[in-house]
UniProtKB/TrEMBL annotation:
Compositionally skewed regions (Low complexity) per UniProt: 254-288
Keywords attached to this entry: Membrane, Transmembrane, Transmembrane helix, Transport
Classification via PROSITE patterns: MFS
Region of interest called Disordered, as start-end residue ranges on this chain: 226-289, 307-345
GO MF: transmembrane transporter activity
Protein name: Major facilitator superfamily (MFS) profile domain-containing protein
Species annotation: Cavenderia fasciculata (Slime mold)
SUPFAM superfamilies: MFS general substrate transporter
Compartment list: Membrane
GO cellular component, one term: membrane
Transmembrane segment boundaries: 12-35, 47-68, 80-99, 105-125, 137-160, 180-203, 402-420, 440-463, 475-496, 532-560, 581-601, 607-626
Matches recorded under Gene3D superfamilies: MFS general substrate transporter like domains
Taxonomic classification: Eukaryota, Amoebozoa, Evosea, Eumycetozoa, Dictyostelia
Length: 655
């Protein structure tokens, strides 16, 4: 198993952590902020306006995520991440300085419009990992978000209203008196800016043209044989990047679907070439050896015979069928050129001379069924023309059935789990007599902490061996089945809740039960054994539900990556992010309305408090069945360039 390339991953993970902190911090004080505007006086109506604010961000992401993903396929992953992070800084500062509900909605919308980082980060992770470590890398997305979910509410809760909460430090501050919610957003903005600079410095671009001549431009992988010895074309003191920083040249040069045929390299002197070939071992003055990152010989190009020897396939290919020609001139005794002149520039790097000769020759570029002819343009123009051909033949993500299928699965489970996240706190706060649990806000927080612990445990201990054992597709399916089981079991907690004795107590009083001991509302508290037993069962169910969530989300994010080739990964992840943003914008409204109706008195099973959980279970059945019958097991691994995807055929192009 390959180790994670942490030097490449740390920057994007830092940005993701800042995203998580900014999002969860805002939700910790959003209700209080809306009340401070004076638009709403009834606390019971705050939830409706909070829904508008939350939906504005999700709808904006629905509109923009695919666009940013597509832009990352064109301009690269790194610049789009930097733009998104800049958008986050602008947005959080806008939130902190909002003086009205419309401005707050606009600020959150700006974040959704300018920031497509989550989808682009998934694309980036998919490109710098391989099938042996991609699961661990995608698992760290959940782990990073979980850490942000812990830090965010702490920052938001501790730093709002600093003039009131920390008068010794901020009593004379006009700025924080006018904008009491600015400080946490200012801290997050500074952290995001630092993370952006850090990412700019440490992150390396991963978007590469599938057919660019990396063998020519990156001479660290080209060595020549002189007097039977290999030497590096670069200066000896030049450092070579880490192995994972470079494209595997074996994949590049072994592709036979890209042919560069030299019309001037006809085999007019074939007989003499054959005789020269016998002296190859003694006169290797101008032969070029292309090696991979591990130093293994892959392709040998010998100017004396214009043949390529492929060590991997043990076959000789004539020069007019060579995938890549790096010709530095005929090899003749006394280092004479073809015109008979002595080569006085023997010290010129062979690659430079190969490029010069390539530019001077007529080249016929065969690309699948498309033939592009250019006899005068430079090598760069030829590469650009090839890129245009690739773009023309590249598959549209909207026509790729597997990308559509995996994105739809992501949207479906996003809808289900957003319904759960929205409805669980509201259901748990409801009276036991109406089917709830009568939790206090601190007990809701304890439930969230159990979820955070389970996410960390899952990513560090369970997820990797589980997926290695069952594969991505089966793991996703089993995770959903486990989630369905917990959805049906959780409402049973109503019948175990010991807090029904507090049904007549208001929510604010629930947070200060100790003060009730001397009030007229005093009630006999539940026994410790019943409370301990209840929390053991509750903790187990919540732990399992969060484990199920990780078994679902980590595979589906990886499946989207695996369903796309490198030229469409950004668009594929952008499409998935847009789809899930749409369902996450809709789910809270549906969940809150259905839950409120089901908790009203008088409704029997199954339209009592069970209704919302039954809905989540039924919706989850669809993805289980679709995955079982329609999703191929080949998506357990990344699709290779040129491999068939569904019914769409790709031209075989290797990076």
């Amino acid at each position: 198993m390959s180790k994670l390339p942490w030097k490449k991953l740390i920057g994007p993970y830092v940005l993701l952590l800042c995203e998580a902190i900014g999002t969860t911090s805002f939700f910790s004080y959003m209700g209080y902020m809306i009340l401070s505007f004076g638009t709403v006086t009834d606390e019971e109506k705050v939830g409706y306006y909070a829904g508008y604010v939350a939906s504005s961000f999700s709808l904006a992401q629905f509109v923009s995520s695919f666009f940013w993903g597509r832009m990352s396929d064109i301009f690269g992953r790194k610049p789009i991440l930097l733009i998104g992070s800049t958008g986050s800084v602008i947005s959080v500062l806008g939130v902190g300085t909002s003086w009205s509900l419309p401005m707050l909605i606009v600020s959150r919308t700006i974040n959704g419009v300018l920031n497509g980082n989550i989808g682009v980060i998934k694309t980036y992770i998919g490109e710098i990992t391989d099938k042996s470590n991609q699961i661990e890398a995608f698992g760290w997305i959940g782990l990073t978000w979980g850490l942000g979910s812990i830090l965010g509410p702490m920052i938001g809760g501790l730093l709002i209203k600093p003039v009131e909460n920390y008068p010794a430090l901020f009593s004379g501050s006009v700025l924080f008196s006018k904008f009491p919610y600015l400080l946490p957003n200012l801290v997050i903005a500074v952290a995001t800016a630092i993370g952006t600079v850090f990412t700019f410095v440490t992150m390396k671009e991963t978007l590469r043209s599938a057919i660019k001549m990396e063998v020519i431009s990156n001479t660290s992988h080209i060595k020549t044989k002189r007097n039977g010895k290999k030497y590096n074309q670069l200066d000896e003191d030049q450092e070579i990047d880490d192995q994972e920083d470079n494209i595997d040249e074996e994949r590049l040069v072994s592709n036979n679907n890209i042919n560069i045929n030299s019309s001037n390299n006809s085999i007019n002197s074939n007989k003499s070439n054959k005789s020269n070939k016998s002296n190859k071992s003694n006169n290797n003055n101008n032969s070029i050896l292309i090696i991979d990152q591990n130093g293994n010989d892959i392709q040998e190009i010998m100017d004396d015979s214009h043949t390529i020897h492929n060590d991997n396939h043990n076959e000789d290919i004539s020069s007019d069928e060579s995938p890549i020609i790096l010709n530095s001139g005929e090899s003749t005794p006394n280092n004479e050129r073809r015109d008979g002149a002595t080569d006085e520039n023997d010290e010129i790097p062979l690659v430079d001379r190969a490029e010069q000769e390539m530019m001077e020759k007529d080249a016929t570029i065969t690309f699948g069924v498309k033939q592009l002819t250019d006899s005068t343009d430079s090598l760069d123009d030829q590469v650009q023309e090839i890129d245009q051909g690739v773009t023309k033949y590249e598959t549209n993500v909207f026509k790729n059935k597997l990308i559509i299928a995996t994105s739809s699965l992501y949207a479906a489970i996003g809808f289900v789990f957003t319904m759960y996240d929205e409805s669980f706190p509201l259901w748990a706060l409801s009276p036991v007599s109406k089917g709830g649990l009568k939790f206090s806000s601190s007990q809701i927080g304890l439930s969230g902490m159990i979820g955070g612990i389970s996410v960390i445990f899952m990513q560090l201990v369970i997820i990797k061996p589980f997926i290695r054992r069952f594969g991505l597709v089966h793991t996703f399916k089993y995770g959903l089945i486990l989630a369905i089981a917990t959805f049906m079991a959780i409402p049973l907690l109503t019948y175990l809740s010991p807090y029904g004795v507090y049904d007549h107590i208001s929510d604010s009083q629930m947070d200060s039960l100790s003060s009730l001991s001397t009030s007229s509302d005093y009630v006999e508290p539940p026994s410790k054994s019943s409370v301990v037993g209840f929390w053991i069962v509750t903790g187990i169910l919540l732990f399992i539900r969060n484990v199920a969530g990780q078994l679902v989300f980590t595979p589906v994010m990886t499946l989207i990556n695996n369903s796309a080739t490198s030229r469409s990964k950004g668009a594929a992840n952008g499409l998935g992010q847009s789809a899930v943003a749409l369902t996450r914008a809709i789910a809270p409204t549906i969940a809150s309305v259905c839950l409120a109706w089901s908790l009203s008195s008088g409704h029997p099973f199954p339209i009592n408090h069970y209704l919302i959980f039954i809905m989540m279970s039924l919706i989850s059945v669809g993805p289980v069945l679709y995955t079982h019958f329609k999703i191929p097991l080949s998506l357990n691994y990344p699709i290779e360039e040129g491999e068939q995807i569904g019914e769409d055929k790709f031209v075989a192009i290797h990076e």
